[in-house]
Amino acid sequence: MPATSSQPQRPRSGPRRDEAARLAVLHAADDLLVEHGFGGLTVEAIARRAGVAKQTIYRWWPSKVEILLDTLIEDTGKRLPFPTGGPTAASISGYLRAFVRFLTRDPAGKVLLALIAEAQHNPATAKSLHERYLDPRRDQERDMLTRAIESGEISPRLSADEAIDALVGPLVYRALTGSTIPRDLVDTLVEDLLRPRST
Question: Rounded to whole angstroms, how far apart are CA atoms 9 and 111?
């Protein structure tokens, strides 16, 4: 799943001095990915859209993948937060419904799907995606489920990691294949996999 300020810092090719230019690059990459797809996204196009020199981008980012990861991490932290307070079956369901909206409606969700697809045949992309986004996000999701288990809110049939895969996998698969994600799918997955205890 989908990262917060605790994410590992991206590789840096040079110092950052202009926050406005940095944000312009991230927004340009986001927009151009949605418009042209990963294959059609180039550093040259990002530079033109952001109004910065291509050399400036290469001083700050070694590749377009790292630009997209910065965009993804920043946007996920803002638009896909974890539930506050003690996690419950209801708050976990809410988080997963928010994840569905993120995948299907948010430009940053398109970035995530594009990076997952690219990672299938690019080992360097897969490594960066795991190290900078997927693994830290998984740590937070595991903590969410573990705290809910310890408080007696849920009683999953699987381990926390297996439960995360079983919950998130169908959502990502349907998004990757362009299928709709039924509204009741999340509730069914939570009910079947986490088995909330009656009070």
Answer: 18
Q: Which helix (H) or strand (E) segment is 125 a member of?
A: helix 123-129
Mean per-residue pLDDT, 30-57: 94
Report which of 47, 75, 58 is spatially closest to residue 133, judged by C-alpha positions. 75
Mean pLDDT computed over 152-160:
93
CA 2/CA 77 separation, integer angstroms: 9
The total number of residues written for the chain in this structure: 199
Question: What per-residue confidence (pLDDT) applies to 5?
Answer: 42
Q: Please give the structure tokens belonging to residue 189.
A: 């997955």
Q: Mean pLDDT over residues 35-43, rounded? A: 94
Residue 84 CB coordination number (10 Å): 7
CA angle, residues 109, 37, 140, in degrees to nearest 5: 25
Number of Cβ atoms within 10 Å of the Cβ of 120: 9
Q: How far lies 183's CA from each of 55, 114, 142, 186, in Å? A: 45, 23, 24, 7
> What pLDDT score was predicted for residue 43?
96
